[in-house]
Structure formats: structure tokens, C-alpha cells
Design brief:
With about 575 residues, this protein is of the alpha+beta class. It has 27 helices and nine strands. The longest helix is centred in the middle third of the chain and has 20 residues, at about 230-250. Bound molecules: adenosine-5'-triphosphate (ATP) and calcium ion (2 copies). InterPro entries: CDPK_Ser/Thr_kinases (IPR050205), EF-hand-dom_pair (IPR011992), EF_hand_dom (IPR002048), Kinase-like_dom_sf (IPR011009), Prot_kinase_dom (IPR000719), Protein_kinase_ATP_BS (IPR017441), Ser/Thr_kinase_AS (IPR008271).
Length: about 575
């Protein structure tokens, strides 16, 4: 669990102004000298031994003379954040009385009565594997090398994450481990996801056996380059992260702890694939569902997670933070204390003024900004991010099906004819390149020879992508219910109107122009005189809404047709709840 205690870049990036020649390795001065850093002298927080793989690498030695580390690294030292205040208490609630500095207490120290710590996994770990040296540690688990003794894995090297049962002192902590194994087991078959092999248990531990990643953490590579990537190298990383996250989201799984420590390279090779690990905080989420528990790592946590209402978009924020770090080498939201970081996440805009941002491509800037949008509705989804012009030309970019499209289309079908025609006008203002992602999604849905799709196509397309996780997350069930409601055909033009997200369009620079030209088109063949009562009923507003008050500006007094404001509000989509909230 990486809440605020994950290894931070601070531990490893000494400030050049203090000591320009310090190679990037474990920095004992920063980690031990700061009084707030209670984690620094804890065995669980020592840097992963995998770092030693890098010690003699050319990238690492070259780094000792790095001069291009961005300004923010020079200006102030990066003491680790102080232990969490309110978030720390949430962590404690989740994991009982476990405090970071108790993380290495021998098994059996905490006696918790009444918790069922039987997972139903095989008891024969020792018969199957020979445990070797430790290769990494996290908050509640440590990972060892192991060799198979028999069966398919005989003489094969694997990684085993060992999670001591003594650390599972609440039902939630036990459930987290159960879910971690279940999700890892279910999410098979993506090349950027660590391959799960098996799970075991004995009286003391749970053992998760998986593919061994020998290439170290992404964090190590970032550090070994002085924290800055060229755009091309950053793209390489981003495409892989987005690809696996788009896959998880389609399966109805939100990772909730995306950070450079949780991506490992399979080998030390420069071209090695990157693998997502650590599904310890992951959860299932249906397309319309909102989660509310605050989990994650402080630097990477999305604002809506702190507001306790979030979905898969929270992962996209974390990816935005990773992208920002890759491209400029410093964190977008930084403070000395954890509560300060949260304040920054909620209120501050990341800086794009200092070097190297002015020299980066406008596409790179736009990409990062559209991930670090505080309004989760305006943020890119993983599939959209893969279609973003910054990555679109990349050879490994393969855009998968995006559940947001399903959500949009469903909302469109349930909308009034007035709104559908307004959305149609808006879609007609978008260029072919702006609609490239919608076109890709349409093709993925497999239109028939005449170029039409129905909701049934969503079901068929999803079935092609189904894993156990999709069943566990009940995404399939959700699709089944809705597809039985609607069999209407839709051509590409109508699909565009239905699939575009107005909230996301508002986030682009040219929104105002689109809205104006769409209104002109709507004026020509969609706008008509409408009474307030009729409008209210088209919008499906309940009787409790004072329609003459809230809708009066929606109608143009000169001719009784929809005003520009009414048009804009209409395309956003409204419900009685919108007005009750206002
Ligand atoms: N498949 C693997 N191959 C090699 N090393 C691994 C593997 N899985 C995990 N590790 C190492 O073990 C470390 C801890 O694993 P993991 O992040 O899953 O543990 P955790 O206790 O859940 O961590 P956290 O404190 O971030 O929640 C990783 O950071 C990594 O260095
Ligand atoms: Ca974890
Ligand atoms: Ca981890």
C-alpha cells in the first residue's frame, strides 16, 4: 500500500546545488536527516535491491554529471513528505494498527481475534518452489526470487510476493489481499501486465507467484536519467502504461496506485517491455459507478479521490503525473507535508512555464494538460490518450474499445430528440482528425456492410475482449441490461453525435468556436419555438423543479426558440438533479 510512504523521488535525487557529483543511488542524507521522515530507517522502506542492477549501468554512471535536471530540483531540496495526517488515519483504518515502522515486526506479534485469514489457496508452496533472495519491498509485502521445483515451472525463475498474515489486522486488509490475487489472476493476457502464475498460503504468509521482472522499477530508470526523458522516450513509456491501463479499465478494474514504482521492466534491455504490478489497491468499478475510499499515493492521487467520488478517471490523473515527471523531471504537485500535497492537488495548477516545457512540442503539453485536468469529466480516457496526436503516430499504439463511448451512446439514446439534434449539430463542427478516435471506436464496434451499428455491437465487441475480470466487475451484466433496451440502428454520423463527450470538448481551446458554429447549424435545421413546459418535459425534469425560473434564459424572448445559452446547456445534458444541486 503506497499511500504516502512509497519511495519518493526525494530519497534519490540530491539537489545539484548541494552536491553536483552525487550519483543517483540511495541518498542516506535526505532519507535519514529529515525528522518528518519516519519511514527512512525502516527496513521496509530501504530501496529495492533491484536498484543494484543499475549500479554499474552506463546510464547510471553517466548520470553523475547530469546538468539538465530541471530547475525545481535545484531550487529546493526534496525532503520526503511528512507522515500523513488525515490520510494516514485512513490507512490505519484500512490496515488496523499497522504503522510503517511496525512493518517488519515478526509474525504473530499482533494477535487479532476473529479474522478469517484462510484464503483457500494451495498449501504446497514449499513443495513447489525454492525461495531465493529478496528483490523488492513494499508496505505490506516483500518480493523474492524463487525457483520452481517441479511441474511446468521446474528450474524456472519466478518472483514471489510474500504477504505476511500478521500484517493483515483488519477485514479490509484481508479483503485487499484477496482482491489483489483475484484481479491479478483474472486479468490475464496483456503484454504490459505482470503474468500471474499461482497463489499459495501457509499459516504465516500468502505467496503470489508471478513472472520475474529483472529490469527494475520505472522509477529507477527515471532516476538513472536524472529524471528527464526525451519526448520520444517518454512516448515509449506512455504507450505501454496507457495500453495496460486501457485494458484494465475496459475490464472494469481501476488500479488506484499507478506510480513509477509500480511499473517494472521485464529485463535490463533498453527495449524491454514495461509491466504493471501491484494490484494491491485495485478494485472493480462499473462504468456508472463511483468509488469513495481514499487510497493511493499522495503525489499521484486525483482530486476527486480526495473528494471521495471517483472512477477510472482517477488512474488517468496518476498517468498525467507520471507523464509530467517523465517530461520535465519534477513533480507537478509538491509540498513538504502530505496535507500540502493534497492542497496543491486540489487547488494549484502545475507549472508549464519553466524549462523544459517551453521547448517541448505543443502536442506533448496538450497531452499532459488534458490528463491533469482537475475536472475528471474533461480528462482523457486511456483509449483517448492513445489516440491523442502526441501518441497517434507511435508504432505500438493500438487503441482498444473505450467504455466511455458506451456510456455516452447510452445517454444519447435516452436523451430528448431536441438534445440529439443539438449534439448532431455539434458533431458536424468537428474535423476528421478531431473525430479520429470516434472513427476508431466505430470501427472496433464492427459496423455492418451498410455502415450501421446497434447496441448489440457493443455486446459483441466486448465479448471479444472478455476476461474473468470483466465478469467479476459485472461490466458484462451491465451491458446486457442496456443492450436489450435499444436495437435502433446508428450510422457513423449519428454515432459521432452520440459518442462525443461535451465535457471533454469544453476542455479544448476551440470550444467556444465549436459551440458558436454548432448553434448556427442548429438554428438552420433544429431550432424551433418551444414553451418552457414543453422544454421541461423534453428534458424529463420533475415537477419539483421551478422550470420558469431555471429555464427562462434558455429561451430567446424574440421568437421563443432556444437561446445560445439554452443550446449549450442542452448539449451538456441536464437532469432534475442538476437543478436541485444548483
Ligand atoms: N514480478 C516481480 N518481479 C520482480 N520484482 C518485483 C515483482 N513484483 C514486485 N517486485 C518488487 O517488489 C516490490 C514490492 O512489490 P509490490 O509493489 O507489489 O508490494 P507492496 O507491498 O504492495 O508495495 P506498496 O508499498 O507500493 O503498496 C516492487 O516495488 C518491486 O521492486
Ligand atoms: Ca501495494
Ligand atoms: Ca508497490
Amino acid at each position: 500500500m503506497g499511500l504516502c510512504h512509497g519511495k519518493s523521488i526525494d530519497h534519490h535525487l540530491p539537489t545539484q546545488s548541494q552536491n553536483p557529483a552525487i550519483p543517483i543511488e540511495k541518498d542516506s542524507t535526505t532519507s535519514n536527516s529529515h525528522p518528518a521522515d519516519k519511514t527512512s530507517d525502516i527496513p521496509f522502506y530501504s530501496p529495492s535491491p533491484l536498484r543494484s542492477f543499475f549500479k554499474n549501468s552506463p546510464a547510471n554512471s553517466a548520470n553523475s554529471s547530469v546538468t539538465s535536471t530541471p530547475l525545481r530540483f535545484f531550487k529546493r531540496p526534496f525532503p520526503p513528505p511528512s507522515p500523513a495526517k488525515h490520510i494516514k488515519s485512513l490507512l490505519a483504518r484500512r490496515h488496523g494498527s499497522v504503522k510503517p515502522n511496525e512493518a517488519s515486526i515478526p509474525e504473530g506479534h499482533e494477535v487479532v481475534i476473529g479474522l478469517d485469514k484462510n484464503f483457500g489457496y494451495s498449501n504446497h508452496f514449499v513443495a513447489h518452489y525454492e525461495l531465493g533472495e529478496e528483490v523488492g519491498r513494499g508496505h505490506f509485502g516483500y518480493t523474492c526470487l524463487a525457483k520452481g521445483k517441479k511441474g511446468n515451472f521446474k528450474a524456472h525463475d519466478v518472483a514471489v510476493k510474500v504477504i505476511p498474515k500478521s500484517k493483515m489486522s483488519t477485514a479490509i486488509a484481508i479483503e485487499d489481499v484477496r482482491r489483489e490475487v483475484k484481479i491479478l489472476r483474472a486479468l490475464t493476457g496483456h503484454k504490459n501486465l505482470v503474468q500471474f502464475y499461482d497463489s499459495y498460503e501457509d499459516d504465516d504468509n500468502v505467496y503470489i507467484v508471478m513472472e520475474l521482472c529483472k529490469g527494475g522499477e520505472l522509477l529507477d530508470r527515471i532516476l538513472s536519467r536524472g529524471g528527464k526523458y526525451s519526448e520520444e522516450d517518454a512516448k515509449e513509456v506512455m504507450v505501454q502504461i496507457l495500453s495496460v491501463v486501457a485494458f484494465c479499465h475496459l475490464q472494469g478494474v481501476v488500479h488506484r496506485d499507478l506510480k513509477p514504482e509500480n511499473f517494472l521492466y521485464l529485463s535490463k534491455d533498453a527495449k524491454s517491455p514495461l509491466k504493471a504490478i501491484d494490484f494491491g489497491l485495485s478494485d472493480y468499478v462499473k462504468p456508472d459507478e463511483r468509488l469513495n475510499d481514499i487510497v493511493g499515493s499522495a503525489y499521484y492521487v486525483a482530486p476527486e479521490v480526495l473528494h471521495r467520488s471517483y472512477g477510472t478517471e482517477a488512474d488517468m490523473w496518476s498517468i498525467g503525473v507520471i507523464a509530467y515527471i517523465l517530461l520535465c523531471g519534477s513533480r507537478p504537485f509538491w509540498s513538504r507535508t502530505e496535507s500540502g500535497i493534497f492542497r496543491a492537488v486540489l487547488k494549484a495548477d502545475p507549472s508549464f512555464d519553466e524549462g523544459p516545457w517551453p521547448n517541448l512540442s505543443p502536442d506533448a503539453l496538450d497531452f499532459v494538460k488534458r490528463l491533469l485536468n482537475k475536472d475528471y469529466r474533461k480528462r482523457l480516457t486511456a483509449a483517448q490518450a492513445l489516440s491523442h496526436p502526441w501518441l497517434a503516430g507511435h508504432p505500438d499504439t493500438k487503441v482498444p474499445l473505450d467504455m466511455i463511448v458506451y456510456r455516452q451512446v447510452k445517454a444519447y439514446i435516452c436523451s430528448s430528440s431536441l438534445r440529439r439534434s443539438a449534439l448532431g449539430a455539434l458533431a458536424r463542427t468537428l474535423s476528421v482528425s478531431q473525430l479520429a478516435y470516434v472513427r476508431e471506436q466505430f470501427n472496433l464496434l464492427g459496423p455492418n456492410k451498410s455502415g450501421y451499428i446497434t447496441m448489440q455491437n457493443f455486446k459483441t465487441a466486448l465479448t471479444k475482449n472478455v476476461t474473468e475480470a470483466m465478469k467479476d466487475s459485472r461490466v458484462t451484466e451491465y451491458i446486457n441490461v442496456v443492450s436489450s433496451l435499444q436495437h435502433r440502428k446508428m450510422d457513423f454520423e449519428e454515432f459521432c453525435a452520440s459518442a462525443i463527450s461535451v465535457h471533454q470538448l469544453v476542455g479544448i481551446q476551440t470550444w467556444e468556436e465549436h459551440a458558436r458554429s454548432a448553434y448556427e447549424l442548429f438554428e438552420k435545421d433544429g431550432n424551433r419555438p418551444i414553451r418552457i413546459e414543453e422544454l421541461a418535459s423534453e428534458l424529463g425534469l420533475s415537477a419539483s423543479v421551478p422550470v420558469h425560473v431555471v429555464l427562462q434564459d434558455w429561451i430567446r424572448h424574440s421568437d421563443g426558440k432556444l437561446s445560445f445559452l439554452g443550446f449549450v446547456r442542452l448539449v451538456h445534458g441536464v437532469s432534475s438533479r442538476t437543478f436541485q444541486k444548483a
